[in-house]
Amino acid sequence: MARSTRWYVAALGFNVVREVETVEFTRAILGPGDGSSVFGITQHHTNTGDGFSEAHTGMDHVAFAVGSQAELALWRKHFDRLGIGYTMPRPGLIVLRDPDGIQLELCAR
């Protein structure tokens, strides 16, 4: 949980908007800071520790839109500086994985 939260803050520039702790789970609500969108990273206390797989029922990947090819190039430089691996399977698309193996995409409009 802490590792993933730190990664999203460093890699994608999100802020921790709120943290929630219950008997069942711990959750960090993350967002860009302007209130335009938020998402949560949740660690269920009963989790067995199995790794993420797109082949299981549930989420396949998360995609974020960026404004232009030029902005996408800035993201590439940012990921290079942080040593975060990524691929570009086609022009206008960066594909990478977070620390839990969840596939993320940055797509130029």
Summarize, please.
This protein has helices at residues 2-12, 69-82, and strands at residues 15-21, 25-31, 39-44, 61-66, 93-97, 103-108. By secondary structure, the protein is an alpha+beta fold. The termini are far apart.
Features of this protein?
single chain, 109 residues, alpha+beta, three-stranded antiparallel beta sheet, three-stranded mixed beta sheet, 6 strands, 23% helix, globular
Task: Supply Rg.
Answer: 15 Å
Strand content: 25-35%
* Strand and helix order: HEEEEHEE
Determine the N-to-C terminus distance: 31 Å
Task: Let me know the number of strands.
Answer: 6
Principal-axis shape:
globular
- Based on helices, strands and strand pairing, what is the structural class? alpha+beta
- Average pLDDT taken over every residue: 90
Low-confidence stretches: none
**Major β-sheet, in short?**
3 strands, antiparallel
- The strands making up the biggest β-sheet line up spatially as 1-2-3
Which bin fits the share of residues in helices? 10-25%
